[in-house]
Amino acid sequence: MKKDDVPQDLSSLGKITKEVCYATDSNGKYVTELSSGWDVKITALDTAWGDIEKRIASAKQQVLEKKASPLLFFMEYRLMDIGILAGYTGFWKWQIKRHMKPEVFSSLSEKKLEKYAEAFNIQVNDLKNMTVHGD
Amino acid sequence: MEIDFEHRQAAHCESGVTTNLLWNASGGKITEPLAFGIGAGLFFAYIPFIKVNNGPAIAFRTMPGHIFSRTCKSLNIPVVRQKFSSKEKAQLFLDECLDKRKPVGCQVGVYYLPYFPKEYRFHFNAHNLVVYGKEGDNYLVSDPIMEGTNVLSSYELERVRFAKGALSPKGHIYYPGQVSAISDEQIKQAIKSGIKKNVFNMLHIPGSFAGVSGIKNTGNKIKKWRDKLGLEKSGLYLAQMVRMQEEIGTGGGGFRYIYGAFLQESDIYLPGNQLGEISGIFTKAGDMWRTAAVHAAGIYKGRLGSQNDFNIMGDYLLEIAAVEKAAFETLKKIKWQ
């Protein structure tokens, strides 16, 4: 890539920091140039987030319909799968699957709820009520 | 606590950390491209059984940790490296290093990294940064991706050092041991061995998931994605590929350019081996990866979507595989002058 072709489309990262790119100058010599983002990357990220938003919305619906516990919602919200959540909480995957049932979830001890809340970086109350504070 | 450490921004996290940790010791000789090339950083692997955000993992660089290890090893610098099962011990070890005025590299997960914008936070656990000081409960952090330095509270740092999921870092900490002056002769030898290792990684790893055969194989797979996965999911997979290719901490197209820069710098140490010319081939490969990304964007934006568009996408990767194969075969045949 030529130095002059280093894209400067403003990404959300670009507002915080520019990225270093290696590109060639008019003599073909490699130099570094800063980029504030590239449209192709920005839309790739948007596409991934569009899919995540859909999954979050569907999880929320399932919780409202009492088909799943709020764990499902926060897992999608925090982009986690059962393996990652098991890693953060120390629960086995089969336990988490059980806790995903609304009736099992409602009988969980405060201590267990706290483990989940810490993994999701939220308060226990928010976990129970499926409340999110923008962050 | 003041530690003699200078933050310099880099294109890629691990080669950046390696360069920043070796900067003083090498008298500024080990630049990012040299660290990347000596560390045999260029790679490709398609790993369908590791899922990242519900899609297959596609790596464009070598395994996390290898660039630092290999660069140090090739330069005869001992490496100190440790992982922990206890968070307390991990912090204690870190504090001891800082007490000894040693900046250290840490492998971290990016999801709970507070200074990253939300849109960039995924459960990606092979990011690297340097911790170079402590003030009260706060750690001073040099993340090579960022223009400036950052501060993390001990809780925030612990959280990312003990991120969970694939490649979880387990408090992974590393730094160069005693370093004596690095001679040009050492650098020459290290360049040769880095190239040799990268030739092996790209041409000779058995199986069809890695190296140039991995690129070719992925190209052929993409042609079948539309029928097999449907338009929406294959769009997501392609977006994922582009993110892995170009996003912070990865950078496949960008990696080809760093490798091009490496060969140009190496040409000064080892003239008469046509490294400058071969550098141009990697520039071309980088450009091709970017062209392929533009085409992929057409698909995930919904502008393109016919089977023919997927065939073109697959063919881009087949062409790239051919170009990179030829480049590495040329590197393999060098009779060093």
Automatic annotation (TrEMBL), chain A:
The highest taxon in the source lineage is: Bacteria
- Species source reads Mucilaginibacter xinganensis
Name the chain's protein: Uncharacterized protein
TrEMBL record, chain B:
Database matches in InterPro entries: BtrH_N (IPR026935), DUF4872 (IPR032369)
User: What name does this protein carry?
Assistant: Peptidase
Q: Which residues form the DUF4872 domain?
A: 156-331
Upper classification of the source organism reads: Bacteria, Pseudomonadati, Bacteroidota, Sphingobacteriia, Sphingobacteriales
- Residue ranges constituting the Butirosin biosynthesis protein H N-terminal domain according to the UniProt record: 12-144
